[in-house]
Task: structure prediction
Amino acid sequence: MANTLGIIKPDAVRRRLVGRIIQRIEQEGLILRGMKVQRLSPEQARRFYAVHENKPFYKSLVDFMTSGPVVLMVIGGHRSIERWRDLMGATDPAKAKYNTIRREFGTSIERNVVHGSDSPETARFEVGFFFRDDEILPKE
Ligand code: CDP
Ligand code: MG
Result:
């Protein structure tokens, strides 16, 4: 029953897709345990994506992720990490399965609308990166 971190990226906030994305999360039966709207600083974005610092897309990714506000979410429920990744779809929207959020709304491999942690270790790190314990609803 681990929590995972979800981010609605600046492209989606700018396009006013927040409500539709949260609706998909609710329809899937996942649970919102924490949420905030924030504009990431370059330092935060660089540290958050530090695993990608040697990739060719790193600088552009940091610029994109700091280009406007994001919605940060702590998402819980049974198998939340896998289920949120499945609902998001593959990194490249063109390759993502039908009915996934990235397939439906993504416009490029970079501007792919949402983020989700990819493992229990990553989820623990990423949730803690943005949320204090007292900002997360306890599991019932
Ligand atoms: O987000 P996900 O875990 O699916 O993919 P990632 O490989 O961890 O990459 C992190 C983010 O970098 C992606 O969600 C894209 O926004 C961006 N990216 C990119 O701009 N170009 C790539 N070739 C790969 C990823
Ligand atoms: Mg990733």
Summary: The CA atoms of residues 17 and 23 lie 10 Å apart. Residues 120-130 form the longest helix (11 residues).
